[in-house]
Design goal:
- With about 450 residues, the protein is of the alpha+beta class.
- It has two domains: about 45 residues; about 400 residues, Cytochrome P450 (Cytochrome p450), CATH 1.10.630.
- Helix content is about 50%, strand content about 10%.
- The chain contains 16 helices and twelve strands.
- The strands form four sheets. The chain has a five-stranded mixed sheet. The chain has a three-stranded antiparallel sheet with strand order 4-12-9.
- A hairpin with a 1-residue loop joins strand 10 and strand 11.
- Helix 7 crosses helix 11 and helix 11 crosses helix 13.
- It is globular.
- The termini are far apart.
- It holds the Pfam family p450.
- This is Cytochrome P450 family 4 subfamily B member 37.
Length: about 450
């Protein structure tokens, strides 16, 4: 009997425990549901003056984004030329910006806003996702690494990496098949960034070794980070250094590969512009098989061509911010502190109110006479404001070098059987690759 009584009370205790646990879980779920409901009401109330595309109560606009983000952004920019809500599910919403004045109002605000990147994409807290004083410190310490004097020494290294890629392409020509660009270009940009930034080394052991013995030689990006000090004499910790190494790899590898791949695709797609660029490059390089720092500023038409490619095919389609203070737009509408915004670079660049005939490929949009009266926030391939891309000149140099050396050796033509299907996987890529035919020039 005592054994049965003991078993009964033991069972009752376990049952009571599970009952309490169930009540606690239900209470937490109820509180979370109330919190989500209140947040949804707050966001809906904030957005009452902003029109947007119809949204599913559960998915939001996720289905449209998943099917084809670039087409959706372009269509929304035409229908909602200033801005519109963009819902990811039922409880996460951004005000998606498609217009210059709205972009200026949010992205010229002195770096106070928080970059709303998904932390899971970038493993460590580098410049992309830092905010506040920590972001200001890192930005100040990293900026010297992108000074012209430093970038000048990278030109030879970038050219070496491009030539390795072109040598591979020359061996593929006898196969008489189109070449998938992104795979080769991605390897080239990885090789280039490892040479320029880390001399092929980028882990904790290397950081310690380089701290102990910095040679009096060409400084790479990691050397500059190791030597950097703020006004109080404080440098970056090893953890901070590793975070910035990861960030530079993440932000400077695939993004540049995307830009260069689409530039080469446009060369193939528009042979008349390809020929104009080649004539400019041939006149510039003459009989040289390499390119130098001073050459990069002497290729105006090629630079206009690159910018038009970046307008139509920006590597990053969206850039997010969380407002650290309220903002009021020129038309009187406003957003409160804490609200999320996204700059639709793709939508802005294809907005008919900003760019006449936006789908037409025309490098002369970037001629001096056409750019002089253009809104400074009309062309934003590297984002805008204080949180713009710190490595944009590094990327532009690599794009110019890749274009120049490629045109001096090959003629590019499209593969009509494999037209690219743009898809956004962190950066703008093609679902089926970017294929072109190559012909070796005599």
């Amino acid at each position: 009997m005592e054994l049965l009584r003991s078993f009964f009370w033991h069972y009752a205790d376990i049952s009571h425990f599970f009952q309490l646990a169930a009540v606690a879980c239900l209470t937490c779920l109820l509180l979370k549901a109330i919190q989500l409901y209140q947040r949804k009401r707050w966001m809906t109330n904030v957005l009452r003056d902003f029109q947007g595309a119809p949204t599913h109560w559960f998915y939001g606009h996720v289905q449209s984004v998943r099917r084809q983000l670039s087409l959706s952004l372009s269509a929304w920019a035409k229908k909602y030329p200033h801005c519109h809500p963009l819902w990811f599910g039922g409880f996460l919403c951004f005000l998606n910006i498609n217009h210059t004045e709205y972009a200026k109002a949010v992205y010229s605000r002195g770096g106070r806003d928080t970059a709303s990147y998904v932390s899971m994409i970038v493993a460590r807290r580098g410049l992309l996702i830092l905010n506040g004083p920590k972001w200001h410190q890192h930005r100040r310490l990293l900026t010297p690494g992108f000074h012209y004097d430093i970038l000048k020494s990278y030109v030879t290294l970038m050219a070496e990496s491009v030539r390795v890629m072109l040598d591979k392409w020359e061996k593929l020509i006898p196969e008489k098949k189109s070449v998938e660009l992104f795979e080769h270009v991605s390897l080239m940009t990885l090789d280039s960034i490892m040479k320029c930034a880390f001399s092929y080394q980028s882990n904790y052991k290397v950081i310690r070794e380089r701290k102990e013995s910095l040679m009096d030689e060409r400084l790479d990006f990691l050397d500059i980070l190791l030597c950097a000090r703020d006004e109080h004499g404080n440098g970056l910790s090893d953890e901070d250094l590793r975070a910035e190494v990861d960030t530079f790899m993440f932000a400077g590898h695939d993004t540049t590969a995307s830009g260069i791949s689409w530039i080469l695709y446009c060369l193939a797609q528009y042979p008349e512009h390809q020929q104009k660029c080649r004539e400019e490059i041939n006149d510039l390089l003459a009989d040289r098989d390499t390119i130098e720092w001073d050459d990069l500023g002497k290729m105006p038409y090629s630079t206009m061509f690159i910018k038009e490619c970046l307008r139509l095919y920006p590597p990053v389609l969206l850039v997010g911010r969380e407002l650290s203070a309220p903002v009021t737009f020129a038309d009187g509408r406003s957003l409160p502190k804490g609200f999320l915004t996204s700059l639709s670079i793709y939508g802005l660049h294809r907005n008919p109110e900003v760019w006449p005939n936006p789908e037409v490929f025309d490098p002369l949009r970037f001629s001096p006479e056409n750019t002089s009266n253009r809104h400074p926030y009309a062309f934003l391939p590297f984002a805008a404001g204080p949180r713009n891309c710190i490595g944009q000149h590094f990327a532009m140099n690599e794009m110019k070098i890749s274009l120049a050396l490629t045109l001096s050796r090959f003629e590019l033509s499209p593969d009509p059987e494999k037209p690219p299907v743009p898809i956004h996987l962190i950066v703008l890529r093609s679902k089926n690759g970017i294929h072109v035919y190559l012909r070796k020039l005599c």
